[in-house]
């Protein structure tokens, strides 16, 4: 498989950094081809505006989706956006590695989606959800939290983690056609023991060794 890992953590020595390296090493050892987008290391610009394009459809009024469709027809995406689009288009499996921030993805990763998931190229017309552009590809969220697992159960003080992840899993990944695999969540790596952290990294590696046999999950009904 061609795997793309999009990684959003500033600190290489973080637990997210360890999960990111574990995934790369495990998947390569299993014979997969791995590309990465290490967003902070790349200094990926998350601000979405005219900088997304080398072309201009309407110089007087900026409407992003109109410019996206025009750029798609005329080869007018900015080089940093085009490079990410190409990684997306060749991957069979995409993994996002990130810490949960404000019940969502860090801003740099949200900005990556805002700029790269372009209308006309990644969705549009009748091409979304089960008929989406990326039909047949799979995606997986690998995330960590500050709060413990009990806080993210139904009725817990933060509420059901699946409801929190729905805007990401359905509104972003499934919308453009990805089949979504069950999220991989390490709750509160700061508070668990060193042994538990090592076990969590082993569990991630073990899951990835069999990842091509996994079936997608439903991401609609929460
Ligand atoms: C802006 C912001 C918003 C946030 N919003 C939320 C929120 O909505 N909900 C929520 O629950 N939390 C939230 N948090 C907390 C955040 O999700 C956690 O701090 C984060 O997920 C922890 O992951 P980390 O990789 O940063 O951990 P780290 O603190 O980097 O790592 C934890 C421990 O793992 C150790 N470690 C690193 N590598 C290894 C290794 N190879 N083997 C063993 N141990 C290792 C580290 O040394 C450290 O002791 C927020 C934080 C911020 C800054």
Q: What would you note in describing this structure?
A:
This protein is α/β, with parallel strands linked by helices and 222 residues long. The protein has a single domain, classed as Flavodoxin domain (Rossmann fold, 3-Layer(aba) Sandwich). 35% of the residues lie in helices and 14% in strands. It has six helices and six strands. Strands 1, 2, 3, 4, 5 and 6 form a six-stranded parallel sheet that branches. Strand 3, helix 4 and strand 4 form a beta-alpha-beta unit. Helix 1 runs parallel beside helix 6. The radius of gyration is 18 Å and the shape is globular. The two termini are 31 Å apart. The model has no long low-confidence stretch (mean pLDDT 97). Bound molecules: flavin-adenine dinucleotide. The site of flavin-adenine dinucleotide has 21 residues, from helix 1 and helix 6.
Can you describe this structure in just a few lines?
The chain has helices at residues 15-29, 64-74, 79-90, 107-116, 161-174, 194-209, and strands at 2-7, 33-38, 93-99, 138-144, 179-180, 184-186. By secondary structure, it is α/β, with parallel strands linked by helices.
Features:
222 residues, alpha/beta, Rossmann fold, globular, binds flavin-adenine dinucleotide
